[in-house]
Amino acid sequence: MTPPQRQRRFPRAAPSPKPAEPARKKEGGGNPERLYVVAGPDGERADLDLVTLIVAGSPDPPPSATPEQAALLRLCAAPLSVAELSAYLSLPFGVVTVLLTDMLAAELVQARFPIVREALPDRSLLEAVMHGLQRL
Fold first, then answer.
1. Is residue 2 pLDDT above 80, yes or no?
2. Model confidence pLDDT, tens digit, residues 22-36
3. Apex CA 91: angle with CA 76 and CA 47, to 5°?
4. Residue 80 contacts residue 87 (beta carbons within 8 Å)
5. Among 2, 86, 127, 129, whose CB has the most other CB atoms within 10 angstroms?
6. CB atoms < 10 A from the CB of 127, how many?
7. Which residues fall within 8 angstroms of residue 68, CB to CB, at 6 or more apart?
8. Is it true that domain 32-115 has CATH number 1.20.1250?
């Protein structure tokens, strides 16, 4: 049996080089000047956590709302966490908290803070559940 013959590969004609496209700025978080304009010069922040749920009172933005605030109101028709809002809008957490602070002050949205639970569950409750399961 003879080994198969290797076939020589000839290089294909290279396509003509395309002109370089101008650099595009990323939507949302790519431009620090835009983030400054969105957040405003004062930059006050409410005490919001990543898991704080935000709910809009009305999904219709007022005429004076910025595009980012209008987008936040549309997204918050159902409760969403601050982390989800930040991801959906492609804005940093700090910028979203500044926007939400302004909207909380104007009572356009409501914040539902997470429920803090005890570190350890109640032992008597666990024993009652265990005894109830053993009776089954």
1. no
2. 555 445 445 555 555
3. 65
4. no
5. 86
6. 10
7. 38, 89, 91, 99
8. no
DSSP string computed for the chain: -PPPPPPPPPPPPPPPPPPPPPPPPPTTTT-HHHHHHHH-SS-------TT-EEEES-SSPPTT--HHHHHHHHHTTS-EEHHHHHHHHT--HHHHHHHHHHHHHTTSEEEEPPPPPPSS--HHHHHHHHHHHHH-
The answer to whether 52 and 69 have CB atoms below 8 angstroms apart is: no
Q: Is the pTM of this model over 0.70?
A: no
pLDDT grade, residue 9 (50/70/90)? Answer: low
- The pLDDT tens digits of the residues spanning 16-70 come to 555 555 555 445 445 555 555 555 566 567 788 888 999 988 778 888 888 888 8
Buried b or exposed e, range 41-58, using 16+ CB within 10 angstroms: eeeeeeebeeebbbebee
Cβ neighbors of 65 (< 8 A, separation 6 or more) are 73, 108
